[in-house]
Amino acid sequence: MATMESLIGLINKIQRACTVLGDHGGQGMSLWEALPSVAVVGGQSSGKSSVLESVVGRDFLPRGSGIVTRRPLVLQLHKTESGSEYAEFLHAPKKRFSDFASVRKEIADETDRITGKTKQISNIPIHLSIYSPNVVNLTLIDLPGLTKVAVEGQSDSIVEDIENMVRSYVEKPNCIILAITPANQDIATSDAIKLAREVDPTGERTFGVLTKLDLMDKGTNAVDVLEGRAYRLQHPWVGIVNRSQADINKNVDMIVARRKECEYFETSPDYGHLANKMGSEYLAKLLSKHLELVIRQRIPSIIALINKTIDELNAELDRIGRPIAADGGAQLYMILELCRAFDRVFKEHLDGGRPGGDRIYGVFDNQLPAALKKLPFDRHLSLKNVQKVVTQADGYQPHLIAPEQGYRRLIDGSISYFKGPAEASVDAVHFVLKELVRKSIAETEELKRFPTLQNDIATAANEALERFREESRKTVLRLVEMESSYLTVDFFRKLHMESEKKPEKNANSSGPNNDLFNDNYLRRIGI
Fold this sequence. Notes:
By secondary structure, the protein is α/β, with parallel strands linked by helices. 54% of the residues lie in helices and 10% in strands. Helix 7 (223-226) links the parallel strand 8 (206-211) and strand 9. Helix 11 crosses helix 15, helix 14 packs across helix 15 and helix 15 (404-443) runs antiparallel to helix 16.
């Protein structure tokens, strides 16, 4: 089973990839929004920055009055075994920062690069990775502080803009909400708790953090809140004691500040019984463990979404086309592959995988037989016409055995009638094949991005079909004509012998021509 480090590290890599590809969330069910995350939410001056710096153990965030955090900061913490500490930004991947004062300056400069020197905000995140032996594996997203009033230099909509940005993160079902509230403020008026209650009414995704416990009025404490009696959450509240402004001005080391925090809770008469569940170190471990649990639960849905996205991208690539190679050999190979794709579709039409091939069968099963039935054989092979043709074929020399010349003229005349339907069948099949070529080109997905190649294939295919039509017409006519040479001497001899076996009842008839030209004999010829 994957370790906590590998799971959180994997999510970190996917988050960085999403940012590089322009996926910042807020665009439907994107991959970014499907990834579990911990969003830090709080009002201005609630101690958000101090909490993050306490978790990291370094002073690295910009400070000042008004809105300091104007872009989401995706803070990825990586625990290392070595003693060196350094930071890296996604927008400057080859640069390593070991001086955390430079990290603070880079955050401010990168914020100004997108938002300018104004006090506007942007939803494009800054990715910061910190590698240190003093952190736990954890990813936090620092969001702009909630505010109630726009100050000079800010647009009138800044209050609503910040709330909408924060809400776009915390309303995701995969987002863990770290709601920061100062202890010296009434919990009922907390901006972070109010927003968390709206998007997570059951409190299943919300972790409450109370800051500035040491700044409460004497004689008061926040035990009711920390023990969940004032406002209950599914997860325990955690108290934090931040560095004082004096400590910040003196650049008191964060590790020293952590020890002072532990001493405060251990020696406090109000919070001593909760000391093992208070402090920034406990908060970091609690969040890291819970984030790992959420990631494990969401892995199947994340994999399903990634696979779905891959399929959609592959389909899009197939639609718009894969990259085209530069060298001639590769281009020729690609053209051949495109022609093979067209050939497969055309073959499917002929073989029955796609509609159209059945029309060719219909030409021979319906159209040709119907045309043959309409041929005037009854007139051509009538007794009167048979007698006329046979008599004219003999000329001045009557036949002795059988009127072979008459037979052949009748046969040639009859067979000539087949030429029209035969040629019409060739034309009908040619028309169907041209239609199938047109449909196959339109249905070949690989060809859609190459209209010129489509035209070339259509032209080449139609020219080939035209040649085949002429060759087929000649072949069909040749086959029809070959039928006239099928009759042999045995046929005529047999026909004469059969006619002699059926003498006429009228014995008064005389002369060879009268015997041979009776109705039965002529009818036999016509049949």
